[in-house]
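[User] Once you have settled down, look closely at the record that follows, and write a paragraph about the fold.
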Amino acid sequence: MNSSDISIIILNYNGYQDTIYCMESLFKMDFSDYKIVLVDNGSFNDSILKIKEWLKQNSEFEDRVDIIENKENLGFARGNNIGIRFALSKYKSKYILALNNDTLVSPDFLPLLLEVFNNSNVALVGPKIIEDNKRLHWQGYFLKRINFFSYIAFLTPLREIFVKTKMAVEPVLQKGEKPFKVYAIPGCCMLFSSDILAKIGMFDENTFLGWEECIIAEKLLKYQYATYVVPKSVIFHKVTKDSALIPLHKRKKSYLESERYFQINYLKMPLYQRFLLSFFREVSFFMMAVLYKMIFSLFSRKKDWE
């Protein structure tokens, strides 16, 4: 029976070049006890052919990579779960790393994450994430649990104040070096205890794109498991291209459907609160549109005066 301490699940959707770069960074790590399970989500651009050609040219890595080909794009949750089930069955791995293909990892990022699992109630850990413009990635991190009032703050001009106070991980990431506990971490890099991941039922397959991080957070919260961020562990996240291949209206529809599912099934949010959130969102978008129009008009007039 094959075994490996860590199975790394990577989803690919028409992004073979990013996937190859991601795997190259993994193969340079100061850690070797892992297997990669590459799940292709119905690519239509010969991604798998390109990746297999690259692996043949780098044959020393071939035995570390398993490839699963889905016939269609099954989304984030279902795609990852297929890879997770395969890894747990074949390798009996102690840990599962769900990693976006548009990331590059630091050589020591994985050992630094593993150290946190010495605490018995830790179920999930994640690194500090730097975007390709060298800015700190903050989307998807939440210090505290989301509720109706924090939703309102995120959907109004209060966002700038709110994000920088109670919910924001960014100030802690910038100043601190010690691992710290959070509510949720971004889905682009999530290292799970395999036993706990299996216990909570893995990713919820009722979503296609969006809110997976918070759903996982709620599942872990139910069993009183902890999630940590490790600032010394660093990865780099490019501006994603995979989701851009899905038409904007479909992405928006999928996101809102996932959000509604999360609100109803995990936050147990009543209908009137969901209605108010939709109202505040539309008002917020309208206010921002009016504000941008006013600013544009003022600049246009200034140029005319000059």
Q: What stands out?
A: The first helix runs from residue 16 to 27.
